[in-house]
Amino acid sequence: MNHFYQTKRVEFASGEEVYFVVDKEARYPLEYPALYVAKKLRKKGRAASTIQKAMECVSILYSWARSEDIELEDRLSAKEYLTEEELDRLVDFCLLNFKVKDNEKVTRITAAQVVAPESSRQTSKIKTIRTVEVPSVEPETQYNRILMIAPYLMWLSIHLSGNEAFSRRSDIKTMVDDLKDYRPGRSRKKDTFNPKSLTRDELKTLYEYVTPESDKNPFKAKKRNDLKKVKSIQVRNELIFILLDKLGVRRGELCGIKLKDLHLAGNSGRVDIFRRPEDKADTRKKRAQVKTEARELPIDSKVAKKINEYVTRHRSKVKGAIKSEFLFITHEKSGTPEGSPLSLDAVDMIFTKLSEASGIKVTPHCMRHTWNDEFSRKADKEGWDIEREKALRRYLMGWSENSKMPDHYAKRHIRETANAALLEMQNKSTKGQSL
Questions:
Q1: Are 290 and 322 in contact (CB under 8 A)?
Q2: Single pTM value for the model
């Protein structure tokens, strides 16, 4: 199957970045996906990364329609909505891995049948049936593609219905509901939400690996004999680890922190987290998007001291650092000049090296889950009721008032606490007994 459309990134003069669905051959953007971005996604303040994912899924919808010789917009304008059979084929199309090259496709013998002779002189033959299999994506990816196609299909159908939009809404909703019904089962259900986080012992071990000048520290400069540069890289990476641990921020939020967002006065301070979708100062190809709400996060004197040490003693000595507004920058030339804003991929690479050196699988997002576990323990210790815990967690994580994420963590912590209590009861009841 061909993927006839692709997603293109465009940056306006204001610094805002937007994504469009573009015809690969004609190289023009499709009108209605662009309108959808302007009228729905941007108006709702969706992050650029969310808009990108939505447009990637919409491009799959249009590619499927073209492969089926369906003029999607003409069909919907004529109030001829997609049939169940067509929706079924669309769902199958969403399972395809479009990044696979032709030489990676696999030919398999899927069946064999005996062909009877046409005359008595001929012998029976065995005919093999071969099919070409294209590697597919995970069911979770297929699920998410359908999840983003559905609202676009709903919007487009209503938009093209014109004056009949109200009377046609029921038929449109039926079509979209049918599409959602075809979604595969998710590999991780809401009730079994169990993101990977670190134990306290694992976290303690990882601190031993990020401590500057530690024999276990895996972070080195390209020129190993440049001790000052080695030290500055290690100090930066330790601070990255500390802020992810102590604040529970996302990777994008971390990379988006600017020097002016830091308030380090006296024995305490704070770090401000802002959404800057139109930030001209962010020159990275993949910008440090903040998907959550803006907020002020307090920091204690120890963290403030670490930040101040990095900024004044190490960051300030990096070539080109004065030109960057961001806290975390590159300390040596590697694809981008020294002093450039640190990329999201670079942060991922730091944690990949840390995982390899320590033998403990850790990612930036894993740190966020670990923070939430510690927050649950804090809530238990302080005796907060569930609603107070949810409200505080929503603010500190930057989640909206309607976010259901606190419910997931509350269920998980209740389950773990209940299991621990059950084991303790079993140990007490069987103490001194032989089973």
A1: no
A2: 0.65
